[in-house]
């Protein structure tokens, strides 16, 4: 059974943290046999977002859409990975 993992971070941001978040998503995606990946994109300051059409962007858009559906159905996650500044 696949583990459901939620990735929250600036995966669409053109920033260093955006690249870090995409690196994490790419790493998880290499193991899609083990993980069902869900994504909540966050903004990062006033940086622009990745806009180029690519296979990776289409895949992320689909995962973002599936995350919204999963949340609306009250879905749960097994793990969470966050690429953000801590609240404290």
In short:
This protein is α/β, with parallel strands linked by helices. The protein is built from two helices and three strands, in the order βαβαβ. It has one domain (3-82).
3D architecture notes:
The chain is an alpha/beta fold and 88 residues long. It contains 2 helices and 3 strands. It has one domain. 36% of the residues lie in helices and 20% in strands. The protein has a 3-stranded parallel sheet with strand order 2-1-3. Strand 1, helix 1 and strand 2 form a beta-alpha-beta unit. The termini are far apart. The mean pLDDT is 92.
Can you give keywords for this protein?
single chain, 3-stranded parallel β-sheet, 2 helices
SSE arrangement:
Blueprint: E1 3-9, H1 16-29, E2 35-41, H2 55-72, E3 79-82
Parallel strand pairs: 1-2, 1-3
Helix content: 25-40%
Uncertain segments of ≥5 residues (pLDDT<50)? none
Question: pLDDT average, as an integer?
Answer: 92
Strand order across the largest sheet: 2-1-3
Order of helices and strands: EHEHE
Oligomeric state: single chain
């Amino acid at each position: 059974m696949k583990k459901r993992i939620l990735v929250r971070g600036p995966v669409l941001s053109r920033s260093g943290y955006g690249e870090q978040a995409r690196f994490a998503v790419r790493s998880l995606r290499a193991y899609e046999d083990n993980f069902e990946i869900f994504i909540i994109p966050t903004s990062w300051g006033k940086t622009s977002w990745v806009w180029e059409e690519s296979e990776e962007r289409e895949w992320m858009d689909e995962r973002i859409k599936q995350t919204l559906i999963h949340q609306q159905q009250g879905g749960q996650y097994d793990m969470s990975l966050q690429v953000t500044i801590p609240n404290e």
